[in-house]
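Subject: for your reference before the review

Hello V.,

The reviewers asked for a structural picture of the protein, and I figured it would be easier to keep everything in one thread rather than splitting it across files. Below is the amino acid sequence we used in the manuscript, unchanged from the supplementary table.
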Amino acid sequence: MFAGRYLWWMLMGIGIFLFAALSLDYITWLTIQLSGCGEMAGACQPTLRLISGVLKPACIWTAIGILFVATLLRLHRLSLLWFWGPVVTVWFVASTPILLFLAADAAALTQPATLAALPVAFLFLAAFVAYLTLVLEDGDTLPLAASVPLRRTIRLTAVYGALAGAAFMSDLSRIAGTLLDMPALAVVIALAQPYLQTVLTLGTGSMAPAYAVLAAFIAALAASLLPHATARQQPSRRAIMLRRSRR
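And here is what came back from the structure prediction:
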C-alpha cells in the first residue's frame, strides 16, 4: 500500500472511531427526543440496543480492523512484514482495551489520569504508524535503510515495546485462554507476566525504563528518515526501473 493510500485509510479508520466515540451518543439522544419514546417506560430500549449495543461496537471494531489491516498492507508494500507484522500485532492487541475504553467514555481522553495510564504499547504503535505515513518508498532513502547500528536499535526497542505490551496487558491471559481454548496457557501467561514486568522495569516497578526505550525508539525512527551516505550511494527504485525499461 502506497504512502498516500495508507494515510487515507488511516484517516478513514480514525474518523470512524471518532464518529462512534463522540457522535453516536448525541445521535442516540436526538433520536430518543424526536421519537418521543421517553414518554413510555421501556419504549426506548430497542433504539438503545440498536445504536449503543450494535451500531457503536460495529463502528469501533470496523475502525480498529481498518487501522490494523492497512498497517499490515503498508508493511507488506515496504517488504517489512516478516519482522514488523508480529510486533505490530502485539501492539494492536495491547492497545485494544484502551481504545474500547476511550470509545465508551471519550471525555476520559482529556483527563490527566487517563493520559498517564495509556499503555506503552499504544505509544509505540502511534509512533510507528506516524513513521509509516512519513516514509516514502519511491525516494532515495529506503524504509529503515539507515546504518546497521540504527536498524538494530529500532528493532531492539520495538521488541522491548512488544514485550512490554504483553507484560502489562492485564487481560492477556484471559484473552489467550478464551481464543485458543487453552486454560493452561492462560495460567502460564498469568504467572509469567509479573516476572516479565520485573525484568522490563529493571526491578524498579516504575515505567521510567519503558518510556526511556520509547524515546530511543522515536529518536531512531526520526534519525532513519534523514538522508544517509549509504542511502545516497544506492540507486533509487525509480532509477532502477528506468534503466530496466531502457534495456
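For the response letter, the relevant points are probably these. Residues 229-243 have pLDDT under 50 and may be disordered. The first helix runs from residue 3 to 35.

Happy to draft the paragraph if you're swamped.

O.
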